[in-house]
Amino acid sequence: MNIKEYLIEKSLSIIVLFLVILVFLLIVFMLIEAIPAFYDVGFLNFVLGSNWIPDNGEFGILPMILGSLYITSIALLISIPLSISCAIFLEEIAPNTLKNIFKPVIQMLAGIPSVIYGFFGLTLIVPIIRNNLGGNGFSILAAAIVLSFMILPTITSLTQDAIKSVPNYYKEASFGLGSTQWQCIKRVILPIAMPGIGTAVILGMGRAIGETLAVLMLAGNISNIPTSVIDPIRTLTSNIALEMGYATGIHYNALFATAVILFVVIVFLMIVSVYIQNRYAVKEVI
């Protein structure tokens, strides 16, 4: 190994070590700030409490947990069929001309700022819901519809990569047995690519749970347990963004405790994603 390669290797090692230390310090900082809230309120009371009234010393995030789950679930129900369909079309059906046009357009959706999606929802989605379904329009449904378009490029791109990674000899064997293109896609390609598709969905879910600005603009930001998709709701991320600017004392610590819960959810999703990739990955046959 020459000196240049040695320096590059050591530099990369230092960068990776620095990132690991940075993440560790971030976790430690959040825990230090959150522990007073867990201690004063009680962990179960904090997670399962239904009232968030800082002025009265009530800190329960259950409505916000449910709000985040409801919005994310509906967004996934909308985006998963669209994303998988787009990925199948781009990778297996579309000619190269259309693929070269549509793929950059879909990827460009991931680069649009959240505030643009929020304004789109404010001017189009919210009035439609208000005029046709009732309420004031700021609701779980409005946030979920916009969020579904925000996570669509993530799921589509990763699903397309999963489909593309299916070895050609599986497809050749399927066609050799007389399968049509759709039969090959349905019975061969999708089952083999399913671990990658599952990972794409989980990463899209993590992206949806962590979204702040667009949800802040559309969900209504009322901390209550919803009974309908047109009810306003507050999510975990919105709660932190709304109140961190003026929170003090135990209120400040409670917001960090909210961040810890959110962080745990995201880490859990990442672990599940890695497990799916490793457990169900198709091994190459040589």
| pLDDT < 50 stretches | none
Percent helix: over 70%
What structural class do the secondary elements suggest? mainly alpha
SS strand fraction: under 5%
Count of DSSP helices? Answer: 11
Number of E-type strands? 2
Query: Reading side by side through the largest sheet, how are the strands ordered?
Result: 1-2
What would the principal axes of the Cα set say about the shape? globular
How would you spell out the order of helices and strands?
A: HHEEHHHHHHHHH
Largest β sheet strand count, sense and barrel closure = 2 strands, antiparallel
Radius of gyration: 23 Å
Terminal CA distance reads: 32 Å
The pLDDT mean sits at: 86
